[in-house]
């Protein structure tokens, strides 16, 4: 900042004194050296300097509804309490749009300081070698990494490239009044096929959809793995998404939606629009239940709704994924922004903070110690269903598939999902085509 010239300064002071004398407030002299300066008084330079501007930290994420509202509040709390950094939210429509925005910013060499990514999106970024290794941060004692759930999911090859923001597992939500009306005890249902029988009864009696299937690849993977299927063979060399187990689960769902019409799926729209419309349909009595995320807890009315664990198919045990949604930092960000982004990650990851996030959203907190907080315990007293996602994750949860192609196998599964759920293409046809393309991508990796 340039200092004003001395003569100009005197003129301003003289004018100010004259004005104050006329109003009878004070008398003064334009000679600022006429009285000795107090040793404790700040210098002219310091007194006239503006406060140092905070370091801006762009933060990309795609969260809607209660999730977005809760994240916004946490960011404001961080900004108001931190004198050095200011998080600037750059809100996207969903995880997919966040990835697209990140890819564009990285291509322009203008990455944000921080982002939240779903697991498939994290894998794509990890494979492209743009993410910052985080060992120097997570090894700091104040982070207490031994208290963090699923920290291992952030490892890619030999480095930790992401840390959990929150943990998700896919739950079953249903209308208590409708199930009770027809004496359907959700917990006593032994399989997804039995749930389909209940859906058929509800459709016949109520004229509404008996169950809603989310237009979501992770759910369709859960169904296949809960039939005994896997994405690749044990030796990691063969893609197995066209196996009998996958075809059985996916084609039954296709038939229940398109042929029997006892289930439905909502698709399309902007961002998470299809997700929230599915929830609205259940809340408004157009559907008796749906498969959703543990993170839906903040948007549901539990005077009407109940939470259940996933069901297996064809006599198999349910195997839902318990997955970490990741915080990611970027190699090409300035060092000061990397440090500031980590300050926000630590803030978000404190036991009380992650417990509060869990209470507001329904997601599983990332710290073991969070369940011992008063915030978490009080929520359990208010809503006993609140503990079911964590129980499912610990009882039946399995890790997500680590895609060695950097997400290309996941992408083929997602395309096949659209064909089955939307276009009514037989599962065998859709999955065999997806397997062929995914296998070609896997072969490229194996040859390196």
UniProtKB/TrEMBL annotation:
InterPro entries: Bact_solute-bd_prot1, SBP. It is found in: Cell envelope. Gene3D superfamilies: Periplasmic binding protein-like II (3.40.190.10). Coiled coil: none annotated. Keywords: Signal, Transport. SUPFAM superfamilies: Periplasmic binding protein-like II. GO terms for cellular component: cell envelope. Belongs to the bacterial solute-binding protein 1 family. This is ABC transporter substrate-binding protein. The lineage of its organism: Bacteria, Bacillati, Bacillota, Bacilli, Bacillales.
């Amino acid at each position: 900042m340039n200092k004003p010239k001395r003569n100009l300064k005197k003129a301003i002071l003289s004018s100010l004194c004259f004005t104050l004398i006329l109003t009878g407030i004070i008398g003064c002299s334009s000679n600022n050296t006429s009285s000795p300066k107090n040793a404790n008084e700040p210098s002219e330079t310091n007194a006239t300097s503006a406060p140092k501007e905070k370091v801006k930290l762009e933060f990309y994420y795609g969260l809607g509804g209660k999730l977005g509202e809760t994240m916004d509040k946490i960011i404001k709390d961080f900004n108001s309490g931190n004198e050095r950094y200011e998080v600037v939210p750059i809100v996207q429509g969903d995880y997919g749009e966040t990835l697209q925005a990140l890819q564009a910013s990285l291509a322009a060499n203008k990455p944000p300081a921080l982002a939240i990514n779903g697991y498939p999106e994290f894998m794509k970024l990890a494979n492209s070698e743009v993410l910052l290794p985080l060992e120097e941060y997570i090894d700091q004692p104040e982070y207490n990494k031994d208290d963090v759930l699923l920290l291992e999911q952030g490892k890619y090859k030999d480095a930790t490239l992401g840390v959990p923001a929150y943990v998700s597992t896919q739950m079953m939500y249903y209308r208590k009044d409708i199930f009770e009306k027809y004496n359907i005890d959700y917990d006593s249902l032994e399989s997804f096929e039995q749930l389909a029988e209940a859906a058929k009864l509800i459709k016949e009696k109520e004229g509404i959809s008996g169950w809603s299937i989310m237009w979501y690849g992770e759910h369709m993977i859960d169904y296949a793995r809960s039939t005994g299927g896997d994405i690749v063979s044990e030796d990691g060399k063969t893609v197995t998404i066209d196996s009998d187990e996958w075809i059985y689960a996916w084609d039954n769902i296709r038939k229940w939606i398109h042929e029997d019409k006892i289930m439905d799926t909502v698709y399309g729209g902007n961002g998470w629009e299809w997700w929230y419309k599915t929830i609205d349909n259940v809340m408004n009595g157009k559907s008796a239940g749906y498969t959703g995320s543990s993170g839906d807890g903040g948007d549901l009315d539990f005077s009407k709704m109940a939470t259940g664990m996933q069901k297996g198919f064809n006599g198999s045990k349910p195997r839902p994924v318990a997955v970490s949604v990741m915080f990611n930092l970027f190699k090409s960000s300035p060092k000061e922004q990397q440090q500031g982004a980590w300050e926000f990650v630590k803030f978000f990851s404190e036991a009380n903070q992650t417990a509060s996030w869990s209470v507001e959203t329904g997601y599983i907190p990332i710290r073991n110690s969070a369940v011992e907080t008063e915030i978490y315990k009080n929520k359990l007293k208010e809503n006993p269903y609140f503990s079911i996602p964590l129980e499912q994750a610990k009882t039946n949860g399995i890790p997500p598939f680590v895609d060695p192609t950097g997400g290309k196998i996941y992408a083929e599964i997602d395309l096949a999902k659209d064909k089955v759920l939307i276009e009514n293409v037989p599962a065998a046809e859709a999955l065999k085509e997806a397997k062929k393309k995914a296998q070609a991508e896997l072969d490229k990796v194996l040859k390196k």
